[in-house]
Amino acid sequence: MKRLSLLILLLMALPLSALAVPSTPYVSSTVLGYDSLTPAVQSLVDVIYEGVSSHRETISLPGGSKYNDADQAVRFVLQAYPELPETANSWTISYYSNHPDEATSVTVSYMRSQAEDQRRQDQALARAKALQPQDLSGFELELQLHDTLCAATVYNLQADGCSTAWGALVGGQALCEGYAKAFTLLCRVGGIPCGVISGVAMDTDGSVQNHAWVEVELGGAVYTVDPTWDDQEFGVVHYYFNLSREEANRDHQADADTPVMGQDAGDAMEYHRYLGLACTQSEADSLFLSLLGQVGQGSDLIELRLTQGSATAFAQRLGDLLDRYNRSGGSLYGSYTYSVNEEQGCLRFLWEG
Questions:
Q1: Is the whole-model pTM more than 0.90?
Q2: Using alpha carbons only, how large is the chain's radius of gyration in Å?
Q3: 199 phi and psi, to 5 degrees?
Q4: 212 is in which domain, residue-wise?
Q5: How far apart are CA 107 and CA 109, in angstroms?
Q6: Shared-domain flag, residues 303 and 263
Q7: Number of domains into which the chain is organized
Q8: Which residue stretches of the chain are H helix?
Q9: CA 17 – CA 204 distance, rounded (Å)
Q10: What pLDDT is attached to residue 142?
Q11: Same domain, 151 and 281
């Protein structure tokens, strides 16, 4: 999270009328979390968004604005709008010394010139539009955007603009915040409601780190997507594509002040379940053997999610299952690689021949 510093002023704020919903470069209803804000916070979000869009360093707030509302609005704008210029690590909220609960203005420090920020915004939006596939919607559109982003981006903490959508979409290098913002921009341009989530995540070695991911809304339900963790060195995976919040909470924990994005309605659109690739441990053998029949006929990749049992234990039996397949008339002789995500119960099997 970006640090907020304070500046005490003794000033009289000029009352400003609240603006309409921010004039975003996509349908404004695709901004998840905005509707969960109070009207007062929404009004401040609108003012701050327009100020940052115009690259103003000092943004005056309407008279009578509450400090806590301004603080919430700043945090929302920082995270919710991937098209905005990248700011430095400090925003300043000014307030009356004799009325510290009333905010008067927000001061912003930008990383680059207005001209450069505009150039990057134009490039990122153009790229997001260019990557929209034809004649796809809903799950299929979201999946295509996810896979395209992951395939074209490399994780890099040091890259220019690595925490921005531009870094991932144009520069091809980003950290988790850049992945999340790029996926958010891609989805919103495609008409899919979504929002960036900040929090912590537990890596496979048990370490906990600051992290960012995305929640998307499909069919009135909200799902979790982590494009950063789905971009592995060996290829694109779908361990974290449309998880329920219960599944996501196994190794992801959102910040306590995260706006409510919508209702978690289960796991019907989770990648493996939607495509018939989820099974219990007792069903895993038969499903894997049936999928082996498709290897070499257009796809050499098998993906599974075990809803019960251990994916690691199942992976250790792959050689035996291949022998069993070949004894029953199959003809798969050669090498394969596999990867496992035990926390999510996922297996990725790639036949190399």
A1: yes
A2: 23
A3: 180, -145
A4: 119-273
A5: 7
A6: no
A7: 3
A8: 39-53, 67-80, 114-130, 138-152, 165-169, 176-189, 245-248, 271-274, 281-292, 311-315, 318-327
A9: 50
A10: 98
A11: no
